[in-house]
Amino acid sequence: MTAVPSAPISDLETAARAEAPLTLDTAPPRTLDFRALFALWANLGVSLIGFTSAATVLGKQGHELGFTAAVTAIVAGTAIGTAMLAVAALVGARTGAPAMAVLRGLFGTRLSYVPTVLNILQCVGWGVYELTVIAWGAQTVAGTEGWRWLFVLLAGVLTTVLTIWPLGAIAVLRKYVAVAVGVAMVYFTVQFARQGFPDPGAGNWDGFLSATDAVIAVSISFVPLAADYTRHARTSASAFWGTFSGYTVAQVWCYVLGVVALLQSGGDPDKILGSFTGVAAGWAFLLVLVLRESDQSFANVYSTAMSIHNLWPKVDRRVLTGGIGVLVTVLALQIKEFTESYYAFLGLIGSVFVPLFAVLAVDYFLGAGRRGWNLTQDAPARWVMLLPWALGFAVYQFLAPTAVAGWWTDLWAKAQEAVHFTPQAWSSASLLSFLVAALATGAVATVERRRA
User: Fold this and answer.
1) What is the C-alpha to C-alpha distance for residues 202 and 176, in angstroms, rounded to an integer?
2) Pair 222, 250: CB distance under 8 Å
3) Cα→Cα distances 81→216, 241, 252, 393, 400, Å
4) What CA–CA distances, in Å, run from 322 to 153, 373, 396?
5) For 49, 61, 198, 449, which has the most beta carbons within 10 A of its beta carbon?
6) CA-to-CA distance for 66 and 60, rounded, in angstroms?
């Protein structure tokens, strides 16, 4: 396996002082054990966005899923999506390379620039959104609609500082933040359970698969970021199981709590945080979750820098993260409301990475990856690997066109009409696009093996 070499850690004292390398060609220190990775992904699995995203699981008012169906969709979708995330984390641990640099082995260095640019756009977009969400949460805790600029600025500064010392930030997450978040989640769970909640969709399972698909998409959104952190894992097993267990437990808990809070707030996502501040001392525990949200913006900013490293490997990552931190802060100060087209744009980019992961996983474990991927700066182009990726993306959009523009949705609507297809409840865009891309990659791998 041609990969970025790993720096062995001789003792715990050295491990504590180690930090992420400043350039791409420097060996990454292997300091993260199972506990550190569990804490990292558990923190990333709990988010204010996760609470509000419970609306995508529960469904529209008047057509809600039953509570049992919603929880089942959350568990199933999280398990499926996090399994994919854990495999991406495993690849990062084995190669020692950041996520976008790993794609050099799949596509070749220059072709890997295509998904790299898309991931940069996605991470910057989510980084801006996270700062806005942090400001919204801070305003809720403070009981004011003002001071948004100050909260955005403070969140931007904290985010940028965390990215300068990323492994140190993960250590803080493990030792302190994870415990505080766990206490806050337990407190809100007990308080919400005592209050009870209505179940307007009791017994309704209509829309179960679409709800599951929405949860899968959230888990998969971290796939293009996973290796940026697990390249520092001490073992492949700790990377896989730390990622899988930490994120699964946290996201299931976060979404279920979000569903309960949404039901208590009358199904209005804009009022969902009111359920948290409505309990005794709720503002204090919500403040913990608001401060913790900075690890989401940290992950997006840091992974943007890691993606840029695939384009310019010699640039100091501290310069990159500092500049990106300033950029997302300035954008968050300007963008106060997010339109449907903004969400659709991020969704369109996100749909790129479901089939891309399928291509990566199959080729790594069953194709050229078994013989050793070339991750160097001069890795040759593998044009044929674009085909299964494109097929998977086409299937995703055919089943669930992203509403980025009228002409785009019309294009796929006409394609559906041409083959007399109407999307059904069972037609999961995530799962079917993954399956098509995986099968196509398997076929390519078989042909390449026979030629070899």
Assistant:
1) 39
2) no
3) 5, 14, 12, 17, 18
4) 14, 32, 35
5) 49
6) 12
Q: Rounded to a whole number, what is the largest CA-CA distance in the chain?
A: 68
Q: What H or E segment, with its residue span, contains residue 28?
A: none
> Other CB atoms closer than 10 Å to residue 284's CB: what's the count?
12
Q: Which of 348, 444, 346 is nearest to 396 (CA)?
A: 348
Residues 6+ apart with CB under 8 A from 172: none
The pLDDT-based confidence of 326 (bands split at 50, 70, 90) is very high
CA 376 vs CA 12, 249, 372: distances in Å:
31, 36, 12
Length of the chain: 452
* Helices assigned H by DSSP within 110-147: 113-142
Task: Please report, to the nearest 10 degrees, the dihedral formed by the alpha carbons of residues 188, 180, 49, 334 taken in order.
Answer: 130
Beta pairing partners, 233: 32
| 168 φ/ψ sector (left φ>0, alpha ψ -120 to 50, else beta) | alpha
Instruction: Check: CB of residue 204 under 8 Å from CB of residue 57.
Output: no
At 121, phi and psi to the nearest 5? -60, -45
d(CA 57, CA 59): 6
3-state class of 328 per DSSP?
A: helix
The pTM (predicted TM-score) of the whole model is 0.88
Q: Examine the pLDDT at 13 and tell me if it is beyond 70.
A: no
Q: For 93-111, what is the mean pLDDT?
A: 94
Taking the alpha carbons of 125, 127, 131, 137 in that order, is the dihedral positive or negative? positive
Mean pLDDT over residues 98-106, rounded? 94
Between CA 375 and CA 369 the distance in angstroms is 11
Residue 384: CB atoms within 10 A of its CB come to 12
The Cα–Cα gap between 435 and 402 comes to 19
DSSP reduced 3-state for 30: coil
Show the tokens assigned to 96.
Answer: 């020692």
386-404: per-residue pLDDT in tens?
A: 999 999 999 999 988 888 7
CA distances from 170 to 211, 302, 319 (A): 31, 12, 20
- The alpha carbon torsion through 351, 356, 359, 360 (nearest 10 deg) reads -140
Question: What's the rounded Cα separation, in Å, for the pair 380 and 377?
Answer: 9
Best CA proximity match to 293, nearest among 5, 33, 51: 51
